[in-house]
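Bench log, entry 3. Co-assembly request; chain sequences pasted below exactly as received.
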Amino acid sequence: MTSPRLKAEIARQYGTPAVVIDLDVVERNIARVQGYCDRAGIANRPHIKTHKSPLIAKLQRDAGARGLACQKLGEAEVMAAAGLDDLLICYNLLGEHKIGRLGRLLASTSVTVSADNPTVVRGLAPAAAIAGRALPVVVECDTGRKRAGVETAAEAVALARLIASTEGLRFAGLLLYPPDGGTAAAQGFLDTVKAGLAAEGLPQPAIVSTGGTPNLRDLGALGGATEHRAGTYIYNDRMMMMAGAATPADCALTILATVVSRATDDRGILDAGSKALTSDKRDCDGYGAILDYPDSRIHALAEEHGFLDLTGSAARPAVGELVRIVPNHVCVAVNMTDRAIAVRKDTIVGEIAIAARGKTG
Amino acid sequence: MTSPRLKAEIARQYGTPAVVIDLDVVERNIARVQGYCDRAGIANRPHIKTHKSPLIAKLQRDAGARGLACQKLGEAEVMAAAGLDDLLICYNLLGEHKIGRLGRLLASTSVTVSADNPTVVRGLAPAAAIAGRALPVVVECDTGRKRAGVETAAEAVALARLIASTEGLRFAGLLLYPPDGGTAAAQGFLDTVKAGLAAEGLPQPAIVSTGGTPNLRDLGALGGATEHRAGTYIYNDRMMMMAGAATPADCALTILATVVSRATDDRGILDAGSKALTSDKRDCDGYGAILDYPDSRIHALAEEHGFLDLTGSAARPAVGELVRIVPNHVCVAVNMTDRAIAVRKDTIVGEIAIAARGKTG
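Structure output for the full assembly:
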């Protein structure tokens, strides 16, 4: 999405800020990552948390993905309603409301869930009863992120035993999410769990799922891994570029914004603020990269204002000018809009519904 | 919203995370701020950017508000569609898409817009032509925030002259948004503009609009101010408490979340992450205050995970426990959901549609 004509046409038809997705780049990203997985002999289970779109999920499936990963039950419901199957929900689900929904989802869709503690495991059984079939459960293991996941191999084995012995549940494997460079530690954890399962006469894990776009570079390095969940690669963002996992040419999503104010020579305001770009900063400089003015900085955000610092930029945009922004963290930026504009080369080719936006439950 | 029974009932009916609004507190906040305005002789023009809800806007109107402020055109369209009138859009609008929409809105609704530069002013005229009636325009003045707004009184007068001389537009006044403690500087700016307008034979500003919830404490201090736009006071949040503009009892909105993981004794995971609480941190400690465990901290967020640090908390929640979180910045947290749950005392009384959520354009 480079031509002034296309930028103007998007603004004319949709106004700004607009979320723009280049489907040519999306298809390249899909093919590249599917190729990585195929060559490593690892099943590709893309994580839909990034795109939240059944349309994009179907492109991934049709290119060879084996199932999808969802972070929340609501995301899985949207994918299932669109006819997508083999869904792994990477989250501890509990509470009457969720378990009822999970049971109804399981009745018609192949779905696997994760769990990292006995309270969650015991709470899952009614979902199988509602569905009238077994619910596969993987044990989430912490391999360094200190987020969710059991901390020790012994806990993983104990949880596998509880799952295997709970009516309606089936122990399906292990969910890992090693940090960058964490393969060696994950290998030790995994091998210890497998030995423990064998010692107890429990089945070996059918699924050993790893995750993360930066971790694609280590694909195949973890012995025993069966599948990989990468999400962000579909669009990429500044974080992925900082992690060395993407180049500017791999960034499929930009936010088209208008310069609405230039109160002084060295600053300006964009009509994209924290409600379009989000305040997710991570280690990035400012709140998005402006492709058209790479030496400018979005140094602060109000809800509807992006604060432009132009002091380092010889070229400076005029009021009314359209600029394209690569967000810091694309997953949360996608989540701010119900609709994206799909383009190819110099043409608008359609709209993409972000049907699983806001499905936090 | 304090009883365990109510928390459980919300979780049972809606699941978590859930955005919960206490209408008793909302009504107290509305009455208190309307009282401030009435006593100061300043018209109350609540900013709907916080609640994004026609239902809440009507409560404000019925309590005595004179019109509403909207930050974006899309928000004004939602309010107008719900029958609300006298809308001030505090934003530079430009581009064919927006001007066409503005013209259609103006045809049926009393709407005023702001502008801080000649490009925007000249671009507004077609909206009046579409509507078949004059468009009132206020000049946005920077009184210290270095966001949008003309920097000098001379620029403000020049822009007023341009508005007054542009077919279809009417100079309606001045939009100010002084920072905390910025009344004296704003007074100097305002007085100089008024003198300049008089010297040029231009009309005096019919509207002199100030803004901000913390600035309510200075209401009436700016001589010549006619109205005030406060938004956040409707729900309040941690930022407002830090600014001394609210107490915990004034916080009407909480996010009900579930503790889904407790991997070790001193940490846990909530099912509310950056897609529920947002990464808007400002100067707050962590990403929200947990009312039920005030000594715990949400020290980090992933998209769907709130990272609980319990080291400082003697009391520690179990997996499955429900907790209530006051967000750092309520306006952006509201923008993450399409629906909030309305409660009074110990009872769910209905749902509130966040109809203007995501209207960034």
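Chain B touches chain A through 66 residues (CB under 8 Å). DSSP finds ten helices and 17 strands in chain B.
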